[in-house]
Design a protein that fits this description.
Blueprint (H helix, E strand, L loop, with lengths): L5 E3 H13 L4 H8 L12 E3 H13 L6 H4 L1 H4 L7 H6 L4 H11 L7 E8 L2 E8 L6 H19 L3 H4 E6 L6 H6 L4 E3 L4 E5 L12 H12 L4 H15 L4 H7 L5 H12 L3 H7 L5
Parallel strand pairs: 5-6
Antiparallel strand pairs: 1-2, 3-4, 4-7, 5-7
Helix pairs in contact: 2-3, 11-12, 12-15, 13-14
Length: about 280
């Protein structure tokens, strides 16, 4: 039996949000592909990859520009996707960060298989469809977001990090990449080629304590959302981040949804937990 392909709702919600910013009717799009809006509230909810592929196509049919996926990078680059970007940002080196990406991205989506290959002076991050075709919007969004985030983590311009980026024939990310100074090639599937020496460079946001904390949560068997709620307790105790920011970092579009989920699991609101954390709550 073939594995059920899925995309997490946090990623799906980013697509819908960008569609709205592009002037498209998000409610109509979701209705046409059979995705219930309420299913996008929980960032860990799994949405059938087939439905997400239909959502890409409906966006295209509704008039989205061919570069729709490239434009999505601004939203995805700052979206934590249940804490995955935090895990990647806080790793010590690019090698460790990409290792976590390859290892854990299947918990965000198993629709695309990711592999890091090292040979000679280069390392290649490959993205391949798992069982079915991936719309070029999806590949464009993934490619551009990876390029931007990897360069940002190293604190270098993209053209200093990437020797080249290979795109599928259907992709429209070529001009976006050239604007970043990156050489573009054509191939069967997307592939990001970096100078191998970059893998062992330290990341600007390296934070051993937070990285190990996040890594323990991702390795836990309790599931992504429970992990993120447990991490929320750490942030509420260890700092003075506003509750709204914590909710946003954990992928909750509305703070009220985060508060509701936190109270359901721990029997107390985040504010109450913060106020009483010194008393052993």
């Amino acid at each position: 039996m073939s594995q059920s392909l899925f995309v997490c709702s946090a990623y799906t919600r980013a697509i819908v949000g960008h569609a709205e910013q592009s002037g498209l009717d998000s409610k109509r799009l979701l209705a046409r592909v059979g995705i219930c809006p309420s299913s996008l509230v929980d960032p860990a909810r799994r949405i059938a990859a087939q439905a997400v592929e239909r959502l890409w196509r409906e966006c295209e049919l509704a008039g989205a520009a061919p570069t729709f996926g490239c434009e999505l990078v601004d939203g995805l680059a700052t979206t934590d996707l249940q804490g995955l970007n935090i895990l990647l940002d806080t790793a010590a080196t690019l090698r460790a960060s990409l290792g976590c990406f390859v290892r854990f991205v299947p918990r965000i989506s198993n629709h695309v298989q990711v592999e890091l290959l090292e040979a000679g002076d280069f390392a290649r991050l490959q993205l391949r469809p798992a069982q079915s075709a991936v719309h070029h919007f999806g590949f464009d969004a993934a490619t551009c977001t990876l390029v931007r985030n990897i360069a940002r983590r190293l604190g270098k311009p993209a053209d200093a990090v990437f020797a080249s980026v290979t795109l599928c024939p259907s992709q429209f990310a070529g001009q976006w990449l050239r604007n970043e100074g990156v050489a573009v090639e054509r191939g069967e599937y997307p592939q990001l080629t970096v100078h191998r020496a970059m893998l062992d460079e330290a990341l600007r946001g390296a934070n051993p304590f937070l990285h190990q904390s996040m890594l323990r949560h991702w390795l836990s068997e309790s599931g992504e959302r429970d992990d993120s709620l447990a991490l929320a307790r750490h942030w509420l105790t260890a700092g003075d981040q506003p509750i709204e920011r914590i909710a946003r970092r954990l992928g909750y579009g509305q703070p009220s949804n985060f508060i509701r989920a936190f109270r359901k699991r721990f029997g107390i609101t985040p504010k109450q937990f913060r106020l009483h954390s010194g008393s052993g709550c």
